[in-house]
Amino acid sequence: MTDELIIKDLHVSIDGKKILNGVNLIVRKGEVCALMGPNGSGKSTLAYTLMGHPNYTVDKGEAWYKGKNILELAPDERAKLGLFLSFQYPQEIPGVSVSNFLRTALNSVKPGQISVPDFVKLLREKMKLLKIDDSFSRRYLNEGFSGGEKKRAEILQLAVLQPEMAILDETDSGLDIDSLKVVAHGINTLLGPNIGVLVITHYQRLLDYIVTDFVQVLYDGVIVKSQTIKSAKT
Fold first, then answer.
1. What domains appear along the chain, each with residue ranges and CATH number?
2. DSSP assignment of the chain, as one string?
3. What's the pLDDT tens digit per position in 84-141?
């Protein structure tokens, strides 16, 4: 189906070292799939490979989305196709406001150029939805942000870009429980039939707050266990 991200027998290495050893995984639109596993199991490698990071070498395998093997596409083409990656360690961009960054990103992945008034309206709607103060948009992207604020900026980017398939790489990393609840609320708010989500984590606590349909366990570069689940505290 065109609304599924289908990963087939994916083998990936970096600097000659094999990291993924035959990953098979399906992420469906309208569902949340959690990918768990210990550090070094290959979770982030999978995320970066799917988005086209140049340091990772695909030795074998395919990843199909909307009828295309995305591993053959440039990173910007993957983004335009509707893929999104939330980074574990978001970078600071001094001098570039959150608002300007988001408008540039939106115009890069969506057909046509959104006007400034329309973008401001959209941004305010999404910030209100996620319970983010308006002043947040005027700050320089991630400069001086706490860990929780950086992750909220990533979720705001997700809300504005409205991708159809989102990969969230250890969004809970470094967050205290209060920040985790805020970020999880933002993610839950954006879930629905028009987006598929792959949540990457090695903490069970995240799944206590995000509605999850499936859990896959990655170990030594291979999916070793799959389970259907429905979780999340209300």
1. 4-228 (3.40.50.300)
2. -TTEEEEEEEEEEETTEEEEEEEEEEEETT-EEEEE--TTSSHHHHHHHHHT-TT-EEEEEEEEETTEEGGGS-HHHHHHTTEEEE-SSPPPEEEEEHHHHHHHHHHHHSSS---HHHHHHHHHHHHHHTT--GGGGGSEETTT--HHHHHHHHHHHHHHH--SEEEEESTTTT--HHHHHHHHHHHHHH-STT-EEEEE-S-HHHHTTS--SEEEEEETTEEEEEEE------
3. 999 878 889 999 999 999 999 999 998 888 999 999 999 999 999 888 989 999 999 9
